[in-house]
Specification:
Helices cover about 40% and strands about 20% of the residues. It contains ten helices and ten strands. A hairpin with a 4-residue loop joins β9 and β10 (about 225-235).
Length: about 350
């Protein structure tokens, strides 16, 4: 990680297309338990009558609309949406739903996936949770699976046909954390800087792109004498798609300038390298433990089309230069590049 001149900030100007779930990937998802027999599809939620903009707690536009359905359609949808939540959270007893209520459905027209956010309320105690319904995208599935196995987090999601559902990942949006949260001590600065370095290393090793500040969250856990901090990705659409190598390095985004300045303010270069090596070592341990699953996933990815030929060629040449290894020039798909890059980063030290 190095300081970036402002002229080098990465810009992503075009939305990535959605790539369908190929037969081989569908077979993998069935094998690892990422499917469920729900019948509701993403398109079923598009039949709302009207939508009302939702504001955040500061009275600003949240980019989400509360959407309203005809009464008869709403009764049908709530039954299916409740069942989907049960399949997501309690797959062994998906019929246990009497205590759940769908209080509203929200829609976001911003971003690639145009998701629906479902608010689920427990009737016994009014506690609520969220989950998302989206169009199934192979890029996102690969990103979620790699995150599930190789990051210090676990993610629940399901795919059925052309629809996928995902659990809600809690945390403070990265673009809000440093602006609105008062950092009470120097040690807090050091912890968030350390976690951003390790987060960046995971993203680059997995070739997860577009980690601008609003595509990850900061998770704060109160320990007995301090706050523990972790940075988690929440957007996986840009998994192994772009050809520019800088897209996979979070410190190349202007939206992360504040976080990057904090890193260079509180960490020495040798400390940054230490944290990078630590994260690679942890990833190597996770990769060895879950190698069979990752190997199967990468095999599907190698056979799949999740980018364009020109982007594959650009990334192939960029990674060959980065690693000083001509073996990358033999790759023909993003899956092959991801496998070679991932194993080079975690087993050969990058």
């Amino acid at each position: 990680m190095r300081q970036i001149p402002t002229s080098s900030w990465v810009k992503i100007s075009k939305k990535k297309p959605i790539f369908p779930i190929a037969a081989l990937l569908a077979e993998y998802l069935e094998h690892v338990g990422r499917t469920a027999p729900f019948t509701l599809q993403y398109e079923d939620l598009l039949g709302y009558q009207e939508g009302f903009p939702l504001q955040d707690k500061n009275g600003e536009d949240s980019l989400w609309d509360w959407v309203i359905y005809p009464q008869q359609e709403w009764e049908r949808l709530t039954q299916q949406l409740t069942s989907i939540y049960a399949w997501l959270k309690t797959p062994d007893t998906p019929e246990y739903t009497d205590h759940l209520n769908i209080s509203r459905v929200e829609f976001c027209n911003f971003g690639n996936s145009k998701p629906f956010r479902i608010r689920v309320v427990n009737r016994h105690n009014d506690n609520h949770d969220y989950y998302y319904v989206k169009r199934a995208d192979a890029s996102r599935v690969y990103g979620l699976e790699l995150e599930h196995v190789l990051a210090p987090n676990r993610i629940d999601f399901l795919v059925q046909g052309e629809t996928m559902v995902e659990e809600h990942i809690t945390g403070i949006p990265g673009d809000a954390y440093l602006q609105k949260r008062k950092l009470r001590a120097e040690q807090t600065h050091v912890r968030i800087a350390k976690e951003f370095v390790k987060f960046s290393e995971r993203c680059f090793s997995k070739l997860l792109g577009d980690m601008r500040s609003y595509n990850y969250v900061v998770v704060v856990t109160q320990d007995f004498d301090m706050e523990q901090i972790r940075v988690r990705a929440i957007d996986f659409d840009q998994q192994s798609y772009e050809g520019q190598i800088e897209v996979y390095l979070p410190h190349f985004y202007e939206e992360n300038r504040t976080m990057l300045e904090l890193v260079w303010d509180v960490l020495k270069p040798e400390t940054i390298r230490q944290y990078q090596k630590e994260e690679r070592g942890l990833m190597a341990r996770r990769l060895k433990a879950g190698w069979s699953r990752v190997d199967d996933l990468l095999f599907c990815m190698e056979q799949d089309t999740i980018s364009t030929e020109d982007r594959v060629e650009q990334l192939r040449n960029g990674l060959a230069r980065y690693h000083r290894d001509r073996i990358f020039l033999e790759a023909r798909t993003m899956g092959q590049l991801t496998r070679q890059h991932l194993t080079s980063m975690v087993f050969k030290g990058g």
